[in-house]
Amino acid sequence: MKSTPRKTTPRVSTSVSTSPAVRRTAWRRVVASHALVLASGWGACALSLPEARRPALALAGVAALAVVAALITGWRIAGSLAVVLVGATPLLAGALDDDAASTRRLVVATVLVLLLVVGLDGVERRDPRESVPVVLHSSTRARRWVAPVVAVASCGLLGTVSVATVTPSVTFLLLGLLAGVGAVLAATRVH
Amino acid sequence: MVTPDLPELGWRTYAISFSPTPRLRRLALVGALAVAAAVISGRGELAAVAAAPLVLLSLHPRAALPRRVRVGLALSPTRCIEDDELSLHLVVDLPGAERVEARLLLPGAVEAEVAQDPPEEPESAQPQEGSSVRWVLKPRRWGRQQLGPVRLRVEAAFGLYETTFDVPLERVTVYPGGGTVATPRAPRELPARLGEHASRALGSGVEFGGVRPFAPGDRRRDVDWRTSAKHGALFVRQYADERSVDLALLLDIGADAGEPGHSSLDLTVRAATGLASSYLRLHDRVGLVTLGGWTRWLTPDSSVRQLHRIAELVMDVQGDDMTVEAGLTRVPRAVLKPGTFVVVLTPMLDRRMLGAVEDLHSRGLGMLVVDVLVSEPDVGARPGLTALALRLWRLEREAVAVELSGLGVPLVHWDGTGDLSAALLHAMRAVPPGARA
Questions:
Q1: Using the beta-carbon criterion (under 8 Å), do B98 and A138 form an inter-chain contact?
Q2: To bridge B167 with a disulfide, which of A183, B54, B150, B357 should be the other Cys (CB 3.0-4.6 Å)?
């Protein structure tokens, strides 16, 4: 028996109990996020292995540890640090070796870094004290991934163009000017 | 599961403001890092890594995000009894959102689950659009419960922006459930007022009360032919008069002990509501007095609204100051007038209640004391002084019970599940204190 408080109604806020099926789905999502972060983070680090340059290898090792730390702690700062280190690894490898700066390798690195950034959201959002929220609306997978596909395609295009031998011409100059004006217009209108 | 009727949605528009997520900052960081690497190393191809994040950021401008959201909400009913089901229907109309999550925050005394069946579209003049969810809520404890809010989290633009806002809910009044008396009993002596209980007095009821010799003016249909034939003279049947009971409920709310939901205050309130409901159904007059906190009273009344008044009054006792010194002296005489039967609901933790019982006894009122304490102090497994304190505590309660017995006041223990009919019958048919001399 408790002492004699006047108010015995607990005023702490609790959330709604969720069904086992919903909880299972949420756990699957969390596990998938962890797997995605681990695979993409370590995959991006592994891109520097073929050339085996010591600075790149050292950075890759630190980045791999940062990924594990981000997974374990779930802290945002650890996640951001992991993204920076993982992103810097293929860039350093590319800066040190021509083979590591190939378009294919850079596109793969970009995709892995994007996946790492996406996966970290799922890792950091988990909170064992809170119940699973009800998802009222979620856009379709196809619609969600249109923009990233376009972004990766642009990355590949830029990478291809950057290593291609281009003869300067008036057409190229005009195209460049047109792209610049279009970018400025787009930036001022929508942002 | 009973599906409650879905009420009409109340629509409100909220202004929302999206803020950048860590995803956006990290993409910007990767882009800046790649550009810096390309510039420092003098390798233009490294700038390709910056293209993807920068394109993603430029494809999702902040200006294109929605600035308003329409939220439709329907909570029904807003007044219910403990363990009743409430329906909460939420519709969010936000075109352009990528993901909308809802988290319902509730007080501990309310349980909720998401309705498994897809929500039916209620008939409404308003268009039913957007994403919807329906919760079934079960308030487990009486009182005025502030539900919600519903916390909505919206993601937009490939998760680069998010916003969180609360949708407030209404306050729900949960009346205590009561089923304490299956058959309302009545004392032998009843006030001369029309009711449904057969009294000792003879009158115009339907229950047989006896026979007497025929007298001029008696109705022929009242003649008891069998008795008349046996005695060779005319006899007429007499009937018991049907009268109502004056019942006063005395609530000792000075101490609340036990687990929430089954505490002494919970049982007190449930017993009071159950008794009032049972007796008011038979058009008896029921009044109420609270002691221990602020002294409140309701003059006995048999109207349909009396139960509502009683329920509303007991709602207010939760926030009372238990240190207030008050007794029955302030209670008007009309509330506890002669002939009223008093049911005292008490955890027997406060000796002020004993004083009130003695006061009522001296007024000659019939009484039943209901002990509503179902738990003992938690002293843990420590032997010694705590065990001794527990023994003393038990002895003190026993002493109160002995004092009540000495006054001739019946005492019954009620754990919230049994029927008080038998105890009431015993107490009501006992000789009232005033008739002893």
A1: yes
A2: B150
CA distance A56 to chain B (A): 14
Between the alpha carbon of residue A138 and those of residues B13, B216, B309, the distances in Å are 21, 90, 48
The answer to whether the beta carbons of residues B393 and B377 sit under 8 Å apart is yes
DSSP string, A64-93: HHHHHHHHHH--HHHHHHHHHHHHHHHHHH
Cα–Cα distance measured from residue A127 to residue A19, given in angstroms and rounded to the nearest whole number: 17
Q: What's the CA gap between B36 and A155, in Å, rounded?
A: 16
Contact B363, B331 (CB under 8 A): no
Q: Beta strand B161-167 with B150-156: parallel, antiparallel or unpaired?
A: antiparallel
Q: Would you state the torsion angle of the CA atoms of residues B93, B94, B97, B102, taken in this order, to the nearest 10 degrees?
A: -50
Greatest CA span in chain A, whole angstroms?
A: 90
pLDDT at B349 over 70: yes
Residue of A nearest to B50 (CA): A155
User: pLDDT at position A167, please?
Assistant: 78
Q: What is the mean pLDDT of residues B392-418?
A: 89
Secondary structure (3-state) at B183: coil
Q: Which two tokens stand for residue B206?
A: 């339907």
Residues 40-69 of A with CB under 8 A from B: none
Sign of CA dihedral A112, A115, A121, A126: negative
Say what the ipTM of the complex is: 0.85
For residue A141, give the nearest of B93, B99, B163 by alpha carbon: B99
Q: What is residue B321's predicted lDDT score, i.e. its pLDDT?
A: 59
Pick from B309, B305, B310, B301: which is nearest to B268 by CA?
B310
- Per-residue pLDDT band at B119 (split at 50, 70, 90): very low
Q: Which residue of A has its CA nearest to B44?
A: A162
User: Lowest mean pLDDT: which of A49-58, A162-171, B266-275, B345-354?
Assistant: A162-171
- Put simply, the answer to whether B158 touches A148 (Cβ < 8 Å) is yes
Q: How far is B200 from chain A (nearest CA, A)?
A: 44
From CA A177, how far away is CA B4, in angstroms rounded? 65
Chain A residues with CB inside 8 Å of B72's CB? none
Contact B58 A186 (CB under 8 A): yes
Nearest chain B CA: its distance from A60 CA (Å): 16
Put simply, the answer to whether A13 touches B107 (Cβ < 8 Å) is yes
Average pLDDT over residues B179-198: 73
Burial class (CB in 10 A: 0-12, 13-18, 19+), B144: middle
Contacts with B259 from chain A: Cβ below 8 Å: 2
A141 has a chain B CB within 8 A of its CB: no
Summarize the confidence of residues A30-51 as an average pLDDT. 92
**Binary contact (A147, B260; C-beta < 8 A):** no
Q: What is the pLDDT of residue A34?
A: 94
What is the pLDDT, as a whole number, of residue B423?
A: 83
Mean pLDDT of B326-342: 80
Q: What is the mean pLDDT of chain B?
A: 83
Chains A, B: CB contacts within 8 A come to: 232
Instruction: Return the pLDDT at B124.
Output: 40
Task: Give the pLDDT score at B109.
Answer: 82
